Amino acid sequence: GHLDPGSHRKVLMKTGLVLLILGHLNFITGALVHGTVLRFVVTARDATSLHYGVTNSASVIAALLTISSGVSALLLSRYLGPAALKWALLALSACSSLCCLCCLLGLLVAIGLTLGNQGRVLLAPCSIANIALVPVPSECPFDPTRVYSSTLSLWAMSLLLEAVEIFFSTRCLLLSLDLLHL
């Protein structure tokens, strides 16, 4: 059913703020993973590390799309008039939902691969056979004992954020459809 403009404004404002916050959190998470681990790991030689890199870049793009959706939802909550804004929200929230969904799947694969290879790819720059046997070698760009668990927990957090982003982006999408009377 159609909501009255007042409640549309409220819902749009809340959703927009949530998307802004989620987008920023996801952006930070992606940046952390990149800064602490992936910038040492990603090489085009190795499919797994390439997958990590692509997924992480996609996460950052998804985060930016989410932030843009949030901004347009907030703008729309202020000015319900312009059709261009409604279409912008429709397009951005659709792209954001899709991109987040792709990231969600990509992250699941990344987590699966990492658990499967027990972090070997993440620790490739350290050139050690087994993490458990070795104290921190001097040539490693990061602490190898922590990198596995921290990368996985950051990815798990990212995964959670993506899922919530999909929910709220889809909500924005439905709101914009409603506002456009489609």
Short description:
It is found in: Membrane. With 182 residues, the protein is an all-alpha fold.
Strand content: under 5%
Helix proportion of residues, in percent? over 70%
Give the quaternary arrangement of the chains: single chain
Radius of gyration using CA atoms only: 20 Å
Strand segment count = 0
Biggest sheet record: none
**H and E order:** HHHH
Structural class: mainly alpha
Tally of discrete structural domains: 1
Distance between the termini: 12 Å
Query: Judging from the principal axes of the Cα atoms, what is the shape?
Result: elongated
Would you tell me the overall average pLDDT? 85
Organism: Erpornis zantholeuca
Pfam family, one: BCLP
Family: Belongs to the TMEM54 family.
Keywords: Membrane, Transmembrane, Transmembrane helix
Describe this structure in words.
With 182 residues, the chain is mainly alpha-helical. The chain contains 4 helices and no strands. It has one domain (5-120, 142-180). The protein has helices spanning 5-41, 47-78, 83-116, 144-179. The longest helix is centred in the first third of the chain and has 37 residues, at 5-41. The model has no long low-confidence stretch (mean pLDDT 85). Keywords: Membrane, Transmembrane, Transmembrane helix.
